[in-house]
Amino acid sequence: MKLSSFIAGLLPFASLILAAPVTDPEQAAIDKNKEYARKYHQYIEDTIKDRNTGCTKENIRRRKEWSKLTSAERKDYLNANLCLASKPGITPQSVIPGTRSRFDDFVSSHIQLTGNVHASGFFLAYHRHLLWLWETALIEECGYQGTQPYWDWTLHWQDQSQHPVFSGGDDSLGTNGAYLPDRDNLQINLPGVDEPVIIPPATGGGCVSGPLSEENFKVNLGPIGYAPQGPDNGLGFNPRCLTRDLSPTISQQTLRPSNVTFLLEQSCLTEFNENLDKTPNGLGVHPAGHLSVGMVELDVFISPSDPIFYLHHANMDRLFTIWQGQDQEGRTGGVWGTQTTGNVPPSANVTLDTPVPFGYLKPGVPLRELQSSIEGPHCYIYE
Ligand SMILES: *[C@@H]1O[C@H](CO)[C@@H](O)[C@H](O)[C@H]1NC(C)=O
Ligand SMILES: *[C@@H]1O[C@H](CO)[C@@H](O)[C@H](O)[C@H]1NC(C)=O
Ligand SMILES: [Cu+2]
């Protein structure tokens, strides 16, 4: 037997032999991410364990992944969202004519500040505190007894429709959108990005079903970020169904455990901020989370109109706190960036004294007060 045919005969076995001992890179990334999370968690628990005032182990809000909630807890969260959508808001209709509810107050804050709080020195602090205000409103105004859940999209990076948050059951946040065939690409305008971004149609595109179907829940504002805009440049009253278009393509390219490891291993705040939006290989996990859900989530301005927004941003904030938790002293005192999205138009750098704006939700809060998850107004931990 010739040597070459001998080797060729072994090839099928070689692939078997190789497959066995080689670790799946995503499994290795999962292990690393868990180790980073463990270190963060330990730091927070150690810091608060002997405290009697401020943020203590008695009053800390323990935020969990959606899958870890009981069915009853998921329903409570869903119902608290619907409750805020049924309460009158405080945003003046002279400013945002389409705003109708307490739920819409949060959308309106985000609309008004879209040009300031993305790809800027405000991004992490604004979204962190917006979540705190949202969770507090659910608790204080709607009697919610739980905490803000998060959506760890690395759990189902191959196909987000498998995540229980999208099961469509009465303990979920609804389904993917109904499949609409023959759709064109959507051109979306991202604040701070000159060129429109082209989004190909994915697996849905229509109305969601389940507990957030049109009979139970409506999106009132927008579209603003893509054509055709709603009335009054998208600020008018435009009640319609919640739409989604889950994209396994985006998810598989950008929401893997290894993409999270890459972010957590950035060494300074500048790199952390830059890479959460855009990596050397494509989209960062922040826009990818939105774009993988699609439709309403493609419209940055009104993206809090889909309750999944808060679960995605809780996960973003979780990654930020885990990143901070690797070097708590060094990573809670820093600032980065200016006061406008993508620094368009050019604006001053933020400092620790710069007030982070919240629109009609509340007066601006100095950035230094929003740097930590267990100091100032905040008191929460990600389990
Ligand atoms: C996400 O991770 C995969 C696998 O590690 C990598 O190939 C891909 O380039 C990453 N995506 C981005 C946008 O960085
Ligand atoms: C803003 O920060 C950047 C980066 O740290 C720095 O290069 C620049 O000089 C700062 N601008 C002002 C006006 O201080
Ligand atoms: Cu935002």
UniProtKB/TrEMBL annotation:
What superkingdom does the record give? Eukaryota
Q: Which residues form the Tyrosinase copper-binding domain?
A: 306-317
**Signal peptide as annotated in the record:** 1-19
* Keyword vocabulary terms for this entry: Copper, Metal-binding, Signal
Gene Ontology MF terms in the entry:
metal ion binding; oxidoreductase activity
Quick check: keyword NAD in the entry? Answer: no
Name the PROSITE patterns on file. Answer: TYROSINASE_2 (PS00498)
The name of this protein is Grixazone synthase
Q: What species was this sequence derived from?
A: Cercophora samala
Lineage summary: Eukaryota, Fungi, Dikarya, Ascomycota, Pezizomycotina
